[in-house]
Predict the structure.
Amino acid sequence: MYPRIIIACCLLFTAALPMAKAEALVGKAYDANSGELLYEEQHTITQQRIRTQYLAPDGKLIATREVTFDQDRVQSYRLTYHQHDRTEQIQRLVDGIAISLKKNQQDNSTVLRTKSNQEVTIDAGFSQFITRNWDRVTTGEKLTTEFVSTERMDLVKIAIRQRDTKLPGDLGVHDLTSFEMTLANPLFSWLLEPVRVAYYSDSQQLAYYHGASNLYRANGNHFGTVRILFERQTSIPLGNAE
């Protein structure tokens, strides 16, 4: 298993505010080493749903993602590949989390029992978790949450800290706030290269992601480490993306 995929997060989130129509947001993912354009993310956002299409540079559809929200929490996640046999699904239950992973004609599923006060983050809810705790994390506090990993079929505890980092010039001169995500257990954090993200400070919209991709190629190999850039949006309240 590609080790960094454990906390490869899809950080797309839009605030639960009334929207008259669906909004669109586009991100471009580049190979972190070569700078090659790997794919484009086309996000369609409504108040209770995010639909994402991942497109190769030649326009071929790699995968489709559906995320649903209920108030301020992600309720379900589904990632379907169109070039090979792989589907990932997560569903929040009253007292647990249901996870299923289908690949190569094999199905694997489990239900993880959780407590009512347990902080569990699913996919796009990760960025929501950051923005909801913005004042705490930007004043130096370390935040932790249990993140649902379809690869491990388990919860993975991760830590988030504000960290200054060198950002690509493509982001312009806007004021940005950067964060670093690692495994919360210091004994294991060295196994994993930190995931780094940056937000526009005034709108709290995700502007930059550097870390493991959440996608696999048509041949089944992981895309590896990517950097994803998002243009600053003015029409999507608190819109975040990865």
Q: What stands out?
A: Confidence is low (pLDDT under 50) at residues 13-20, 236-242. Helices lie at 125-132, 134-137, 186-189.
